Amino acid sequence: MKKPNSAHVYLAAMLSILVPAPARFGYTLILVLLTDVTMLIASSLRLGLKKLHINELSNFFLLATMLFLAVLYKILISAWSPLIGMILGFIVYLVPSSSFLVGYILFEKQDTNGKPLNENPLVLNMASALIFTVSGLLFSFFRELISFGTISFPSRNGLVIYKWFKSMSNEYTSFFATIPGAFVLLALIFAVITFVVRKINIQRRKR
Questions:
Q1: Residue 162 is inside which H or E element, if any?
Q2: For residues 57, 60, 63 and 68, what is the CA-based torsion angle, rounded to 10 degrees?
Q3: What distance in Å separates the CA atoms of residue 51 and residue 31, rounded to the nearest whole number?
Q4: Among 185, 193, 136, 207, which residue's Cα sits nearest to residue 5?
Q5: What's phi and psi for 130, nearest 5 deg?
Q6: pTM > 0.90: yes or no
Q7: Beta-strand pair 158-163/150-155
Q8: Residue 159 predicted with pLDDT over 70
Q9: Residue 103 needs a FRET pair 20 to 30 A away by CA distance; which of 3, 15, 65, 144 works?
Q10: Tens digits of per-residue pLDDT, 165-174?
C-alpha cells in the first residue's frame, strides 16, 4: 500500500496529536519525544522481523508493541508527574497514530511506479521522525509564544513557564491557544511551507 504525499502526512500527524494538546511547548515536547521513541522501537522491531523473515505476523507484532508502549507511556508519565499525566489524558494514546502517519511502520516506501524500495526502515523512519520533531516543536513554540507570550518546559510539578512578552498575551492572540486557533495557525504554516517548496521546485526545473 502506498502512503499519501509526505507533506500531507506530516500535517495529518500534527492534527492527530498536536492540535488537541494544550497550547504549551512543554506538553508538545513530551508527545514528540514519545513519538520518536515509538518510531525507534517499532522501526528496530520491523527491521529485526524482516531479517528473521517473519513477514506474516510482523504487522500484528508491531501493532501490539505500539499499543503496549502507549499504555506504558501513560503509566510512566502519571508516575513521574501526576499533573501532566492528568492534563495530557487520552492524548498520550494518540502517539501510535502519529507514528503510523509519520513513519513507514506498516507500509513500505514505494517509488513512482508503486514498487517497494529496498531501504533500511530504521534509517528511513528516523529521518521522517526528525522532520516531524522539528516541525512539531516549531509549531508548538510559536503557538505558545503568540498565545501567551511564554515558553514552558515539563517538570515533576507540572510546567516551568518563562514569560517572554507581556504584550503578546491578549484576547486576540489567545485564540491560537484554542483548537480552532491551532487549526488556523497550522493551516497558515502549511500554506507558507507549501509555497516555499513550490518556489524551490520551480527554480530547480528552470535550471
A1: strand 158-163
A2: -110
A3: 30
A4: 193
A5: -65, -45
A6: no
A7: antiparallel
A8: yes
A9: 144
A10: 765 556 667 7
